[in-house]
């Protein structure tokens, strides 16, 4: 989906309102409307991105939830880019070792060609999303804290439509994971036990009350109030490791963003200890050694080689590194010199991007893993299973040290070139970096419009199993490769869901949401806005 403030015409069905000049691309039109609502109150790019992200993570059951992790990358004009690290952390403060590593069960699903994950209370890591959102709002926001929450509270209270993306994932996980909670199960299933159909109204009991409590008292209501007590009591009673001390000591961390260059653009992304930004930087650096102007057999062969090299490096070195920062530096240096290709040739998220006419860009990616299925009674909050994301957390349940951030592929990014600012990101587990890399090549090297750059067919080298394979969408002139090949007949949500928003002082705003998901966009020009 794409709308542009440059066209000079209004859609026939547009509603017009006076608002802040802003553009947003996010995971649903409902989330885009939340951004529009906050823009009408004078909110900036960060306020609008936070409102949309909150709405997305609380109205995409199965795909995401607020009791997970998030990263927020913000680049304000005249300042250095910052990434706020609100990723999940390893729990267990105060617990003896004998009480660690319990309370899980292995769940095997056919989702994405077949995955195994750990569900149950023992897979729950320390949530960081509320702390990251509050940190970003305190540093950059203009709207009131409650105004940022109002659209999500209303959607939780009145109900929201079940998206096709949620229905697709819940078709695999609805009973085996999200059937572990009575409130959650009945919210998603009809009385006869069948999964509700796309578009059905979903009301999750108690969720609106929990969001209202956070809107009233800030993130401390989540970490130290009744919600925190309910979460830790629930998890500990079922053998999990989350304690009150874990919640009390959790803090979002501001880090300088990891910067890389492509086609005269500077790209700021998620730094270590997360791995997503480093892998993206390595892909960009390696591929830029021989820039491509179009996707032919040769350029696709190089793309496959770059993906294969970078993802294998991540799997064999980054994922198990004691010092992720040092290992990430070695990977990027190897990509820059060309050694990386020579050496290595053999999960669920939501994203929001926002820009405004003050030159601020904000990109937010949030994840709760595949879901633990646990919902503490009376909260409406589904808890993450990030300790049990086996393809990311390869060290296991007792990953240690306590309080350390878990590995993450999330890579919310912002790019600048002169007077142009671009916010980008994608959900899609280990497809995040490959989706973003291909979008950036499309938009910044091949000069495709945002909508075309987002929708263009993608490939992904899957290194998560016992043997590597190549997945591709139809419409590409693929080279001969020594990998098992699966071609999807049309674009598919497996390949991520890139959201991009840009602002140029001469050309105006542009936004594009990925057709692989049901994404939504919102663009205003200050005097009027389009709400489709």
SSE blueprint and pairings:
Layout: E1 2-4, E2 22-26, H1 29-39, H2 45-58, E3 69-75, E4 82-86, E5 105-109, E6 115-119, H3 129-140, H4 145-158, E7 160-161, H5 164-173, H6 182-188, E8 201-202, H7 207-217, H8 220-223, H9 226-237, H10 244-249, E9 253-256, E10 258-262, E11 265-269, H11 276-288, H12 297-316, H13 324-337, H14 339-343, E12 349-356, E13 361-367, E14 413-417, E15 420-425, H15 432-445, H16 450-455, E16 459-462, E17 469-473, E18 485-488, E19 499-504, E20 508-513, E21 520-524, E22 529-530
Parallel strand pairs: 17-18
Antiparallel strand pairs: 1-20, 2-12, 2-21, 3-4, 3-13, 4-9, 5-6, 7-8, 10-11, 11-14, 12-13, 14-15, 15-19, 16-17, 19-20, 21-22
Q: Give the end-to-end Cα distance, rounded to a whole number of Å.
A: 11 Å
- Assembly state: single chain
SS-derived structural category = alpha+beta
Number of strands: 22
Average of pLDDT? 88
Net shape: globular
Helix content: 25-40%
Strand content: 15-25%
Q: Any idea what the radius of gyration is?
A: 21 Å
| Parts with pLDDT < 50 across at least 5 consecutive residues | 1-18, 343-347
Largest sheet: 8 strands, antiparallel
Number of helices, where a helix is a run of at least 4 consecutive DSSP H or I residues? 16
| Order of adjacent strands in the largest pleated sheet | 9-4-3-13-12-2-21-22
